[in-house]
Amino acid sequence: YHLFPGEPKWEKKTLTYRIAKYTTSLSKLDVDRAVDMGLKAWSDAAPLNFVKANQGEADIMISFENGDHGDSYPFDGPRGTLAHAFAPGEGLGGDTHFDNAEKWSTGSNGFNLFTVAAHEFGHALGLGHSSDPSALMYPTYKYQHPIGFRLPNDDVKGIQTLYGSNVSGKELPTVPANNPNACDSNLSFDAVTGLGNELLFFKDRTFWRRQAYLANIRPSSIASSFPQLMANVDAAYEVADRGTAYFFKGPHYWVTRGLITQGSPRTIQDFGFPNHVQKIDAAVYLKNTKKTLFFVGDDFYSYDESRRIMEYDYPKSIDDEFSGVEGKVDAAVEVNGYIYFFSGPKAYKYDTEKEDVVNVVKSSSWIGC
Amino acid sequence: APAVFALSNWKDIYTAKEYLDKYYSNSGKLQISEMVAGSVSLSSKLKKMQQFFGLQVTGKLDYSTVSIMKKPRCGMPDVAN
Q1: Of residues A224, A220, A246, the one with CA closest to residue A235
Q2: Cis before residue B77, ω within 30 degrees of 0?
Q3: Does B11 contact A at CB distance below 8 Å?
Q4: pLDDT digit string, tens, across residues A67-102
Q5: A79 and chain B: CB distance < 8 Å anywhere?
Q6: Which residues from A are below 8 Å from B15, CB to CB?
Q7: Torsion angle defined by CA atoms of residues A271, A272, A277 and A279, in that order, rounded to the nearest 10 degrees
Q8: Are A128 and A3 in contact (CB under 8 A)?
Q9: CA spacing 20 to 30 A to A190: which of A92, A130, A312, B80?
């Protein structure tokens, strides 16, 4: 790896970024996701946090540009130069530009935006080009699959030279010491949510990531991906068409895009709960109706995501509405049109058309047991 | 063809000039005449690039050097300014 002369780096560990101009060749959501994952490649390896700004100046201003765009490094049309970024510093420092003339892609047919973004953010954080062909910071383009991507060693050494490692001298524990025994048949979950094309299952300080149809499910520590949540998540849900997820603990919630937290925690009163509600047990977003159901004790509320208001004539009784689901609702998630309720060691598959439970399995079977 | 070139395809010569001016420009840009007649500056830039990419360091514009120059890449210089 190489650093820039004078080894410029950010003195702060939490950096803001803003996508000021999008490309016409990908949806905003795809660009947001690629950028989030490109940043996460670095925050997984070093104690860095990235917070998305939606207006004004940010440390890392990101934009898709054509030809001469005012920074004396004009782009050259399709192929050739794909993007560039500036070393850490005020003003232009850290800014990252992509050539809008390229055919950007979320896959391998065209230039994979995650691959190029992750490389450019290496520059924005203070890394020059590496002469190691296996490194992400090697100058020429080489497709990287975003799912399961792990930063090559050469890049990890470079970024940790500048910012240290996530924990002093040790690899971050991906599985915390008291990792609950996944195949304990009494295993229950604290929260379950979709996130992109994965399902996340939370328990104590651990969470499992499951891709829709893949068996490889491995536990991670919540602290490693959600440092602000640490442990004991009460509830979580994702509004997939907004690419936004919500995580709840006590009277607070956090908003994330992918695994990147957007700003500081907020109070659940934002949703319009009555003041006596200080914690929710579970939450699930229903794609068809665009409503989020919040479960609190024996009752549930319905929040209209389109109008962003709590619906009237709620709360209603869970027993009345969801017959067949027994016990307190710990977690809930919608998959392929069915609502899955997790209550203690059992998971209830609820068919909203039949208005009845159509299957009951062990909760732990969802993480491969 | 001038000693510095193992090939005389004019398009490649322009590709090489643009590439070296962009990514190895810390000692100034090249003249097209240098590209044809060769020069110390050109040879040293080529050597720097060949060394960076782990190629045989010849100072000559050979096929393996030109093929790297044609690959899509990041716009940041390899020799940091």
Answers
A1: A246
A2: no
A3: no
A4: 999 988 999 999 999 999 999 998 999 999 999 999
A5: yes
A6: none
A7: 0
A8: yes
A9: A312
Which of B52, B72, B75 comes nearest A84 by C-beta? B75
Q: Indicate which of B73, B78, B79, B81 best probes the interface with A, i.e. most A CBs within 10 Å of its own CB.
A: B73
For the annotated catalytic residues of A, the residue numbers are 120
Cα A36 from Cα A44, distance rounded (Å)? 12
> Any residues with CB less than 8 A from the CB of A265 and at least 6 apart, and which?
A228, A252, A253, A254
Count of beta carbons in the 10 Å neighbourhood of residue A167 = 12
Q: Which long-range contacts (CB under 8 A, 24 or more apart) does A347-354 make?
A: A348/A324, A350/A322, A350/A324, A350/A325, A352/A286
- Mean pLDDT is lowest, of A171-175, A218-222, A239-243, A363-367, for A171-175
- Are A139 and B74 a contacting pair at CB < 8 A? yes
* pLDDT at site A237: 97
> Rounded to the nearest 10 degrees, what angle do helices B40-52 and B10-23 cross at?
80
Distance CA A317, CA A304 (A): 18
- Which two three-digit tokens encode residue A249? 């603990």
* Residue among B52, B73, B76 minimizing CB distance to A85: B76
Q: How far is the alpha carbon of B70 from chain A, nearest alpha carbon, in Å? A: 7
Largest Cα span, chain B: 32
- The residues facing A140 across adjacent strands are B73
